[in-house]
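Anyone? Bumping this.
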Amino acid sequence: MIATLFRFKGGVKPETHKDCSTRQPIARAPLPSRLIVPLHQSAGGTPRPLVEPGQAVLKGERIGAADGNFSAAVHAPTSGVVKALAPHVMPHPSGLSALCVVIEPDGADRWIEREPVNYRSLAPDELRDELRDAGVVGLGGAVFPTHLKLKPSQGGRTETLILNGAECEPWITCDDMLMRERAEVIVRGGAVMRHILQSERVLIGIEDNKPQAIEAMRTTVARLGETMEVVAVPTRYPAGGAKQLIKVLTGIEVPYGKRSQDYGVQCFNVATAYSVWHALERGEPLISRIVTLTGNVERPRNFEVLIGTPLEELLPLVGPLPDTDRYIMGGPMMGFPLPSASVPIVKATNCIIAASPALFPPPPPEMPCIRCGACATVCPHELQPMELYWFARGKNFGKAQEYSIFDCIECGCCAYVCPSHIPLVDYFRFAKSEIWSREKEKAAADAARSRFEFRNERQEREKREKAERLAQKTAGARAADAKRALIAAAIERARAQKEQVQPRNTDNLTPEQQAEIAEAEARRARIRAMAQTPPEKPL
Amino acid sequence: MLAALFVMTGIALVLGVALGYASRVFKVEGDPLVDKIDAILPQTQCGQCGYPGCKPYAQAIAKGEADINRCPPGGEEGIRKLADLLGKEFKPLDAEAGVEKPKSVAVIDENTCIGCTLCIQACPVDAIVGSSKQMHTVVAELCTGCELCVAPCPVDCIHMEPVTETIENWKWKYPVAEIKERHAA
Amino acid sequence: MITSPHVYLPVSVRAVMAKVLVALVPGIAAYVWFFGGGILVTLALATLAALAAEALMLKLRGKPLAMFLTDGSAAVTAWLVALAFPPLSPWWLIVAATLFAIVVAKHLYGGLGQNPFNPAMAAFAVMIVAFPGLMSQWPAAAQPLPFAEQLRIMFAGARHLDAMVMATPLDALRTAFASGEGRATVATALAAYPGGGLMAGKGWEWIALGYAVGGLWLLQQRIFTWHVPTAFLGTLALISGAFHVAAPERFATPLFHLFGGAAMLGAFFIATDPVSGAITPRGKLIFAAGAALITYFIRVFGAYPDGVAFGILLMNMCVPLIDMKTQPPVFGRKDGNP
Ligand code: SF4
Ligand code: SF4
Ligand code: SF4
């Protein structure tokens, strides 16, 4: 047992509503009539499709290959035929569509050849590639590719491994039920992760409102003879936030923009540990997950659901009540309303809450901030939400960044307590995405500017070079002229020389002299003419 | 009442002096004006402003030769920023220069392209790749949407496609303020 | 789209303001006990004036009337004006002060949540500068006039008050010293003062106690944090204690200062006003300590009967700076953590 727990500042205690969905064991959801598997289900790059419409696929067959290392593969959740490769509306607050592989199950649920690996015999790098290709991502909701987090910082080791079973959001119970029912696989998965990270300590943090899960995990750890500590942490939202749990268990605060492994600690969701074990020991990629279906329904319960199952095919299992007006994916503190009931279950879907105006009344109208400071008191990242609000609202993004808006984890505590009912988190999301896009735009503009300048320079240079070539050519021409002139001059000289042979004193001659000259001239001319005409016949 | 007035005026004076002093002491040594203007211009390099690129336009503005409302890609927001920077009045976009359009990128129909390289020569930011007699492609990330390559194409195989919203570039909207406030943003 | 969080604590501005009003009740009860029911009329008057002014300003500014009129903030301002002003102030003084508080100090600065100065204190300061005479007439405590007489004084402007008007204990001290008779001591000055009570003037100390009780309840209700009242009262006690120890015959005891004048009202109800006060924990401490210091010096060396209003207003001016300079470190970025 670790002696002391640490405390993170702030936090709230909303009503948990967890009992209703834990009365029944996890059930397997029936095979749906079609599966809509989005290609992009992890943080990072969009996998490229490996299948074509009409192609038959087997259960567990890779249908999307990881796009580079910062990405994770996706697989066919059952055997069947690829019907289409088409955009489908996503479970995303934007309500936009993304490319999905639509599979019509053949009902046989036939597995592809599974290739379990012995994790002890493989190098960590190979294990990471295995996990990437098995599509294992963080199942707590952030869907960060797990293989990337299983990398100790500088080649060394990550001293502390934390398995996160806190599950602090109200209503959600998928991790709770998984720990109660499948503790062994979680613990074994944790052992695999520990092996990869070479961790000394393994801590399993569970909020103390889940005594059964704690009990199950403790007995399993003891039975398997693992040296892991199951720690009950005080129930206070957001104790299940990775940074908060790390703080509570180790006292380490990992700031925004830093990786926790640089602080010698790494945190995974318990369900992720579960999938890691399945991926390696069974060779089964991540094709299903536990989803809590709860809220305004008749029979709230947890289901093991194939990734890609349309929500509308799951709803009859729990029987939404007639006044249900929307579905929230995730918990009530951080979840978002789904754009449609046709969206597929994805790797990030931990919980679907049926909402009704009675169960989740819309917030009262927003009033001005009275600077009561309640938000700052509950902010687990010790921010000053009212200042951030002020800057975000005034679109003073520089100031918002100065006041660390990117440290905000959007946990919603501030908006939860605000007496003026200001949708604080919305303002922060708006400001963040605006800052991102501006930075992107600015980078693009800068790139365009430098490319334009580069091009201008190049054109300038080309022009210059052309001009030079031209100049050279003319210079060459002039040189030729000079040569020609030289030749001409030489000819001229020669002529002059020839002329010099003529007697100069031709003036004032006596007629006899002139006659003599004329005769000599004629003679010379004769000789010249003779010299010019080739002698055809001897004279 | 008189005393109050005096006190208030006194405070105002003191604050005014302090502010004036502060603005002098803490004055940010900035880039020269042209760079500041150029930083606001969108770098589309389309020439719609009547200058061969954003920088020349920036220089013209700095010299006071050009008005601030001639850049269609920068749009109203750009004009507003320029007005702010230069302490001028905002004025709507000069219709002569063009109209504000959603950002687009050029797409070359690769089946029709004859590889004449005319578009490559027209592109101000070298966003088109390909060599003579081979088909050309626009690198979408680099394309500024200036449309300068469209006209030169002898076979009309270049068209502009508006940039669509995807999950990756989607932005959270400004929260709808429930209270009517004439907020000077 | 309705976005997260989808659940809320059942809190509202209205509930906060209502609690503040409730917390004022013990003080008001003591007030009525010692000074008679006139204050209730003053309270009602101020409330009506405040609501009317609020409605008018909301209408002019194009804001939803129902939502803001019922938020209770105007009533809180009105009550603070009524309680801070001398008892039996003429009706027009109260109405004018309330109007000033709501129209100028609140709405011209942007309405709820935007005013840099505490509206009630701004009104108090303006009135004390404009009508110094009226603002320092206090009726004798513990011998409440008949109710009808009180109403006459308030409404008919019957200013033949000589029989009953006296200074507050604070005032009595100040004038005794100011009158230049070097022989005055705290003891003689207070002995000469007919309303002297146990600690700080008969009646006043009990009213102050009432405010303190209400304030502690608000603290327990987490309407504000401990920082402001503790720093305000602590600083006031420290500084007055220091002076008192140095020259007991010249400076009154800390108890006298804590329970005299508007110290308790200020510490629990005015300096804790979130809108115009500092907001960071350290900022609150600085803000309240500064206000207490200024209060003490104005009380002892200044020309006004009390210094709470000026202390708080002056510190209100420093709030943006204080807040900026006292931003607490963010999670993971403490002491040297990059
Ligand atoms: S809780 Fe709401 S009203 Fe209070 S300071 Fe924060 S934003 Fe303002
Ligand atoms: S949403 Fe952000 S600002 Fe609000 S409490 Fe959570 S971390 Fe703090
Ligand atoms: S009109 Fe085109 S070239 Fe001119 S400043 Fe705007 S983007 Fe640049």
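Late reply, but here is one note on the structure posted above: The longest strand of chain C covers residues 138-139.
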